[in-house]
Amino acid sequence: MTRNRMMTVAALSLVAASVLAVAGCVSAPKSSDVRAPEPTKPVDATRLWSGRWHEVARLPMKITDNCVAGASIYDLTAPDRVGVRDTCQVGTPQGREKAISGSGRILDPGFNAKLRVRYLFGLITWDYWVLDRADDYSWFISADPTMDRLFIYTREVPSETQLRELTQRAAATGYDVSRLEFPAQP
Question: Cβ distance 68 to 57 under 8 Å?
């Protein structure tokens, strides 16, 4: 075997090993890792996965540092497809906008409470489960199945009393609400 060919084989082996290592790190959680409660209420996709929702509480994440007046804007584009635009203002409700868009797929058609969103051309994938919601669709509590992320959304900016009640509902799902952030609202 020539030296160039040996170097090519070695380089390809190194690339293949790197790809496999990265793929192992980015894989979806195993079913044994899922600790979150299963959604219990079916969702009317046209009512929940459409329009603007205010993000009134969330667990801390690096991506939301210094983000206030957050919102998710959903657009139901097909019975199981949802366009997603997550946005916030930097620093103050009047600050510059920071936003990211993604493409969502409803994972449990008919029940419609599990949404997988791919951001940045599929480089980032998050699952959102609707753990609780209002009968009139004025609020919902969303989380990921690994219990790393928790969000409380409302159609209108809630009162302090409403926010306390929603926080208690989130605690009832098993999440640590002592770490919740309550960003400034518009």
Answer: no
Residues 158-176 pLDDT 10s = 999 999 999 999 999 999 9
Interval 21-71: pLDDT, tens:
333 333 344 444 546 799 999 999 999 999 999 999 999 999 899 999 999
Residues 6+ apart with CB under 8 A from 153: 53, 54, 55, 56, 72, 139, 140, 141, 142
d(CA 50, CA 155) in angstroms, rounded, equals: 11
Contact 153, 54 (CB under 8 A): yes
Domains of the chain: 37-179 (2.40.128.20)
Kind and range of the H or E run holding 102: strand 97-106
Position 11, amino acid: A
